[in-house]
Amino acid sequence: ADFTWVWAGPFATLQLAHLGAEVIRIETENRVCVTRRIPPFADGEPGPNRSGYYNQYNQGKASVCLNLKKPEGLDIAKKLVAASDIVAENFAGGVMNKMGLGYEVLKQIKPDIIMISMSGYGATGPESAYVSYGPAQVPMSGLSSVTGFPGFPPMHVGFSYGDPNGGLHGAFAVLAALMHRTRTGEGQYNLGDPVGRGTDGPADARRAATPGRQSGRPYGAPRAVPVSGPRPLGEHCRGKRGRMAAPVPGHGPAGAGDRYALCQPGRP
Fold first, then answer.
1. Same domain, 60 and 191
2. 163, 193, 204, 258: which is the annotated catalytic residue?
3. 152 is in which domain, residue-wise?
């Protein structure tokens, strides 16, 4: 039963659909998923099922519209849960409880149910009730502080890193929970906030969080990128088939001073 919407949640359940799971999205006409309204649309004609953005992250899924504020809609949702292995959601913290679909309720319906909650700022704490979107996740996670160039203020990354990263972590958590249930018969309630997942990738961010290390200052990218001059992207060379290669400095002692690492025969 898929209660997710926008990006992080649907991206998690998309991975499960690609692995063969039958995914049923629970939606409502009262509050349509915003991605259904995002262009481009098929043939340039807007429509709730014609958004390329929506279909990109919801391929291979079924969908049903329910009004969860009405008893009959809530009853149908609970019946879907009873027939499901997994419940996924990425509302703000506490929303599922307010709708009468919190984990404690679902566990009574199906004792071995696996639930994954991907609320932007977690399920507890003073920020848990905040709605979360990618552009805010990046600075809130601290990722901006390790993005950019030395001597410059923190910079935003090129895309909403927390959403897809949080979605992938959510899918991995579900797979681990399924393995656990196969061995023990126990269900699980997993939490995975996209903001927290924003710092899982950059090594500098992890090092800055290590006890005893200086933190709270922008690290910046270790090397600047030339943006002017005759070769704004750096030195390059032509390959045997006429293709261009933009070399990067080698790493480690063996690559020290190796300005044309990619141009040398036998180099990967």
1. yes
2. 163
3. 8-204
Structure tokens of 162? 């927390």
Domain count, the chain: 2
- Concerning whether 43 is annotated as a catalytic residue, the answer is no
Q: How many CB atoms lie within 10 A of CB 133?
A: 15
Distance between CA 130 and CA 139 in Å, rounded?
15
Please tell me whether the peptide bond between 232 and the residue prior to it is cis, using omega within 30 degrees of 0.
Answer: no
- Token pair of 42 as six digits: 């098929």
What letter represents residue 87's amino acid?
Answer: V
DSSP calls for 25-87? EEE-STT--GGGGPSPBGGG---TT-BHHHHHHHTTEEEEE--TTSHHHHHHHHHHHHT-SEE
Do the domain assignments include residue 3? no
Q: Could you tell me the pTM of the whole model? A: 0.74
Instruction: Say if 212 falls within a structural domain.
Output: no
Per-residue pLDDT of the chain (268 residues; tens, 9 = 90+): 999 999 999 999 999 999 999 999 999 888 889 999 999 999 999 999 999 999 999 999 999 999 999 999 999 999 999 999 999 999 988 899 999 999 999 999 999 999 999 988 877 778 778 888 877 877 877 777 777 777 778 887 777 777 888 899 999 999 999 999 999 999 999 987 766 655 555 555 556 555 555 554 555 555 444 444 444 444 455 555 555 444 444 444 444 444 444 444 444 4
Indicate if 184 and 71 belong to the same structural domain.
yes
Tokens for 138? 């990046």
C-beta atoms surrounding 215 within 10 Å: 14
